[in-house]
Amino acid sequence: MEKILVSIITIGDELLIGQTVDTNSAWMAQELNHAGFWVQRRIAVGDERQAIIAALEEEGKRSHIVLITGGLGPTADDITKPVLCDYFGGRLVRDEDTYQRIMQMFESRGLPVLQRNVDQALVPDVCTVLRNERGTAPGMWFEKDEKIYVSMPGVPFEMKGLMENEVVPRLQERFETPALLHHTLITTGMGESFVAEKIKDFEAQLPPHIKLAYLPSYGLLKLRLTTVAPDKISAAAELHKEFMKMRGLLTDIVVAEADLPMSVILAEKLKAKGFSVGTAESCTGGTIASQITAIAGSSAYFKGSVVSYANEVKMNVLGVQAATLEQYGAVSEETVREMAAGALKVLGTDCVMAVSGIMGPDGGSAEKPVGTVWIAVGGHNNIHTKKHHFRYDRARNISMTCVAAMNELRKWLEL
Amino acid sequence: MEKILVSIITIGDELLIGQTVDTNSAWMAQELNHAGFWVQRRIAVGDERQAIIAALEEEGKRSHIVLITGGLGPTADDITKPVLCDYFGGRLVRDEDTYQRIMQMFESRGLPVLQRNVDQALVPDVCTVLRNERGTAPGMWFEKDEKIYVSMPGVPFEMKGLMENEVVPRLQERFETPALLHHTLITTGMGESFVAEKIKDFEAQLPPHIKLAYLPSYGLLKLRLTTVAPDKISAAAELHKEFMKMRGLLTDIVVAEADLPMSVILAEKLKAKGFSVGTAESCTGGTIASQITAIAGSSAYFKGSVVSYANEVKMNVLGVQAATLEQYGAVSEETVREMAAGALKVLGTDCVMAVSGIMGPDGGSAEKPVGTVWIAVGGHNNIHTKKHHFRYDRARNISMTCVAAMNELRKWLEL
Asked: Where do the MoaB/Mog domain residues begin and end (chains A, B) (predicted)?
């Protein structure tokens, strides 16, 4: 069974000048993979007629499906719709369903409707209109030379609704796809070269349709097995068998058997033990708490945090001793230990993470250079500490510290 | 003066299956714009020989410069280097400087050196080696048919070092570029259709080389003017003149006169007033604090936060009355007001933000649907409250709440 190939075209000058990070493509690729479609290229072009047409032509030649986002807003810089209309040889006509939705949307918000809003109900008469429940610009489905092209708004929330409710179901109806499966093992504490060396015989014996990829990720290493095969059940069984072989070679360093964020991996452990958690964060400034609470349902195990950026907050809220700060400094084993003990007390949780470090670019010294971090994790009368030294810039040092702290607590929970 | 055109090719299966969001391209585009280079396309392809070669060929035809990241790791799935070597007709030879760096790096970390690490010092003999101070894989500069191709590692920290120290300076030496300038006005409280209507005469009179773009962004609207012109000084003067005309039409809704994150805009206001700040966060779970502390130097005005996810933390740490929670609920004007007052007291700051809301997908009710948020901002004896209702998914509701809270405090500081 042949792979069904997809190209994703994102349109917008903001993507080419770096004003916006393209998160749409990654989300779309995941959804498409789950449905068995193979994304072979992603292209970003500006709001420029010739650039859009060139991308449509080139990607239409190489893929079965071309998904397009962006450039559908009500202002003059958005030109995707007229360009698509010309490219597919249509003319703009009013779509009654879209028109009614727009009128209703503005009415319910108590806003007047401008001509440019009404014009969003104009669609090329050569497309199938896909209803966008979340905004004014509808999705548009075109077909040409047996290829499918779908245009969606660039607003992530609107694009996601269209993908889930319209685009993916319709593509699944149209195409028979092979099984396209990934299985990721997450490991910690061993560099990719050494892991590769350890599993090189395993890698050599993999059947050619199973591919192994190595992805270092914030101090962890992701090992991804990917297969494409006609039958989903036998493909999954074969992939699982190979995965378990690989896992067996790396038992000591396994963190998780699926590609999940560390916050989700930790959440599973907390739920399994029935433990509540909190954080005392200095250098990460609330980022660990933010990552934990990004997960729906986290209120079941997360109670709260004290972000003690200033020493006075460490003392007044967490009860860190002035003498400790004076003698050892804010970035020290003694201080994180007292931060952890204080957080356990004021937050009333079963376990905590506490971090204090120097994220840079300033604040480092010969003794405690930028990247020095002390982490404490544990519960009452049972606190473990660990020192890390990261070598990156501020943003990456913060991310590394978050993953490291959650990983330390994960290990503590497994003791 | 002609535009110097750039294509960016990112290589890696993880980009095509959505395992990784490509943040490299946006960062590179910003750097290139500052230096006067025009990014016209971004392409992501997998770790696959034919796909890489096709991208090199196509982008080499349309751009002066092709920048390539990814696929340079020490494992078998990374194939960029041999493909480049073949494409440019070279053979792999050891680069002595890279070899010495690798040996030193492993020695200093107390790790053995494997053959696959040593092999990272192999480079095509047809490239100029660019020293990567931050990792084992060097940058490689190729020239073919008067086009320039530069390959860099995909690890963001390493790519950034190479761009700043080697790639951009060398490109600037090679090319004379026109001025490429952006100037962004950030507004709040008026939809893009209405803003567009308000400034349509302004938009109509813009000279053809100045482009206006509208970018809605988390409840704000960014209006970006872009110009490309031969002389930097006169281009900047002309752009400034048009920018001030536009600004003059939108005085009431201006948030900032540069494209900065809301956390940075707020930081400037705080510093100007000499005010310290803290947060009391329920539904945002520390995300506001995380965004504030992402800024280097934020310890000058940010003292800390209480993330009071559980009601007991609201009571025990912030001093919210049990009766208030019982009578009005956690998501209420009364509760955020007490959270703000409590945070001012325990954190000892001049001003605070407090938020409590329902981010979804669960927890909503008829009276308080998902997206309901109460925000309190202010200082001692002077707390303002506001209710918001966002209509999105959990992640977007959290982001919207953060921007809204910081925007409310910004307005309070301007009173």
From this structure: 7-174
Domain termination site, one of A235, A256, A277? A256
The answer to whether B333 and B374 are in contact (CB under 8 A) is: yes
- B17 and B161 belong to one structural domain: yes
**Could you give the dihedral angle defined by the CA atoms of residues A257, A263, A266 and A270, in that order, rounded to the nearest 10 degrees?**
-130
Together in a domain, A193 and A318: no
In this structure, the answer to whether residues A278 and A151 fall within a common structural domain is no
Q: What span, in angstroms and rounded, lies between the C-alpha atoms of A159 and A161?
A: 6
Decide the pairing of beta strands A147-152 and A139-144: antiparallel
Same structural domain, B164 and B91: yes
DSSP for B128-196, please give it.
EEE--TTSSSPEEEEEETTEEEEEE-SSHHHHHHHIIIIIHHHHHHH----EEEEEEEEEESS-HHHHH
Query: Using CB atoms, which residue from B29, B44, B286 is nearest to A18?
Result: B29
Q: What is the pLDDT of residues A251-282, one digit of tens each?
A: 999 999 999 999 999 999 999 999 999 999 99
CB-based contacts of B92, cutoff 8 Å, min separation 6: B81, B82, B85, B122, B123, B124, B125
CA-wise closest residue to A68 among A141, A145, A174? A141
One domain for residues A82 and A41: yes
A19, closest residue in chain B (CA to CA):
B26
Burial classification of residue A214, based on how many CB atoms lie within 10 Å of its CB (0-12 exposed, 13-18 middle, 19 or more buried): buried
Q: Does A211 touch chain B (CB under 8 A)?
A: yes
Residue type, B25: S
CA separation for the pair B110, B167 (Å, rounded):
31
A276 within 8 A of B276, measured Cβ to Cβ: no
Three-class SS state of A86? helix
Q: Does A274 touch chain B (CB under 8 A)?
A: no
Q: From CA A265, how far away is CA A184, in angstroms rounded?
A: 13
Q: Where are the beta strands (DSSP E) in B79-146?
A: 92-94, 122-124, 128-130, 139-144
Query: Which two three-digit tokens encode residue B93?
Result: 């030879």
Asked if the model's pLDDT at residue B404 lies above 80, the reply is yes
Judging contacts by C-beta atoms under 8 Å, the chain A residues touching residue B213 are 13-14, 47, 77
A88, A145: one domain: yes
* CB within 8 Å: B15 and A42: yes
- pLDDT for A129-175, tens place per residue? 999 999 999 999 999 999 999 999 999 999 999 999 999 999 999 99
**Cα-based angle B290, B292, B297 (whole degrees, multiple of 5):** 120
Domain containing A125 — which CATH number?
A: 3.40.980.10
Per-residue pLDDT at B352: 98
Query: In the 8-state DSSP scheme, what is residue A253?
Result: G
A268 close contact with B: CB closer than 8 A:
no
pLDDT tens digits, one per residue of B255-304: 999 999 999 999 999 999 999 999 999 999 999 999 999 999 999 999 99
Instruction: Give yes or no for a contact between A55 and A43, defined as CB atoms under 8 angstroms apart.
Output: yes
Residue where a domain stops, chosen among B256, B280, B308: B256
- A214 CB near a chain B CB, below 8 Å? yes
On whether any CB of chain A is under 8 Å from the CB of B72, the answer is no
> Length of chain B in residues, anyone?
415
What is the domain range of residue B68?
Answer: 5-174
End-to-end CA, chain B: 47
Q: How many CA atoms lie within 13 A of B391 on its CB side?
A: 8
The CATH code of the domain that includes A239 is 3.30.70.2860
Task: Kindly report the number of other CB atoms within 10 A of residue B231's CB atom.
Answer: 12
Same domain, A224 and A204: yes
State whether A168 and A220 are in the same domain.
no
